[in-house]
Amino acid sequence: MRIDVLSIFPDMFKPMTESIIGKAVNRGLVDFSVTDFRNFTNNKHNNVDDTPFGGGAGMLLTPQPIFDAMDAIKAKAGDYGRVILLDPAGVPFTQAVAEDLSGEEHITFIAGHYEGYDERIRELVTDEISLGDYVLTGGELGAMVIIDATVRLIPEVLGNRESAIGDSFSTGLLEYPQYTRPADFRGRQVPEVLTSGNHAKIAEWRMKESLRRTYLRRPDLLEKIELTKEQVKLLAEVEAEETT
Ligand SMILES: Nc1nonc1C(=O)NC1CCNCC1
Fold first, then answer.
1. 12-63, pLDDT tens digit by residue?
2. What is the Cα Rg of the chain in Å?
3. Distance of CA 149 to the CA centre of its chain
4. Atom 15, ligand 1: which residue's CA is nearest?
5. Residue 177 preceded by cis peptide, ω within 30
6. Which atom of ligand 1 is the closest one to the Cα of 137?
């Protein structure tokens, strides 16, 4: 996967190159490049923003530097790929969106600042994505979150010590409680079933606890998935246990 980012704060992405992205880049799984579109301005003061027509508070990113930076990406990479604009008005970012993006060959992120973007910038965009219903100072943190959640899903990126299989949300449910050694920590025991060696019972316990955690914390997720007969049975047990 090739990832391009347009940002006027490219140094914000340096920590990423020392963690998950760095490993993926070193293993040839990801090409990662940040372009400072301030380098593409054609005005004396290298301004990337200007006042809005019609008046009003705040400054808008002007189209020229971004269009020219995108042209440079296209000249280097052959195309832009999926072009993601970080914007509170975008589609909420979810695990499903990350899974969709993880199959792409090339993704370009446009991380904005100031009040917003000149509307003509949206002509370049294939997807507008929001990190949530709040206002950030820029799109960089959003781009980093999306990149992290997406790149980890590329096969071979996560080593054997980690796995995306069974992640919360990837099954449509929250993850079950997990335990590791010691079995007895300051008198706190690991549930016996997990040390029973009975894999069928362990699987059932994990599904039930996943349903319990989802039922208690995110019941809205239960509306979005079709439960199997086994899951319906287990959920009924959870509901009975949680209401007594
Ligand atoms: N929430 C958000 N999800 O993606 N981007 C978000 C955001 O708040 N962007 C800011 C909006 C105001 N201008 C600076 C960028």
1. 999 988 887 888 989 999 999 999 999 999 999 999 999 999 999 999 999 9
2. 23
3. 4
4. 138
5. no
6. 14
